[in-house]
Design brief:
homodimer, 138 residues, Nuclear Transport Factor 2, Chain: A, six-stranded mixed sheet, 35% strand
Chain lengths: 138, 138
Amino acid sequence: MNPAQTGLKKWHKVMEGGNAPAALAAIIAEDAAFHSPVVHTPQQGRALVVAYLAAAGQVFADSQFTYQREIVDGNQAMLEFTAEIDGVHINGVDIIQFDDGGMIKDFKVMVRPLKAVNKLWKMMAAQLQAAQAHPSKA
Amino acid sequence: MNPAQTGLKKWHKVMEGGNAPAALAAIIAEDAAFHSPVVHTPQQGRALVVAYLAAAGQVFADSQFTYQREIVDGNQAMLEFTAEIDGVHINGVDIIQFDDGGMIKDFKVMVRPLKAVNKLWKMMAAQLQAAQAHPSKA
């Protein structure tokens, strides 16, 4: 298995467990970056990447989140997903770059259509705020 | 070369020529579909796919549009790009599915951040309207 395949296997396992922060921290490189679908500036460092992916796990918990296709090439992978939240269809991609050990170095998310971007923006902001107010539940 | 590599070579050539409609029509399958970053419902058929990609060519004409990375796997490819229009940073992906002959079967675009989605929505609507009003310039 190449680094992307090794990394994807771990990623899928962490997702099955609901994106638990400790499990996320174990597969994310210390200097990793997260690029949200909404904001231009990346979130730098393991702690922030964990916080965003844990929040996403909560937001998509009951959304019928399903990966539809996978494009894997060297250390990189694009995973396309569909989901539905409050009747809003969400189609998006996780573009993940792994280091040579299969740890996540860079995680970028884009979604369509416009309605989905707006929906996720609100849900993620609320979830990140809730996690800050109750860190034990993050 | 596999179908995606053959198809990508043609696509890059068509882009260098500014997405001319006749050149686009020659590399797009008759039953192709285009999925915009803004609208959920796909645009079906070669004529509509050509119209959208030609409009995109106009919208990005002076935007310093640059492909940043390419993930290629079997018949599929993800091309990530950056551009800038009126000071708005645009980061997006073209996710292209090719048929076995290297013709474009499915073309999906997603962009980030939110500002870029809103900007492109306005620009594309104006461009598609202008092309309809002056078909010779499309």
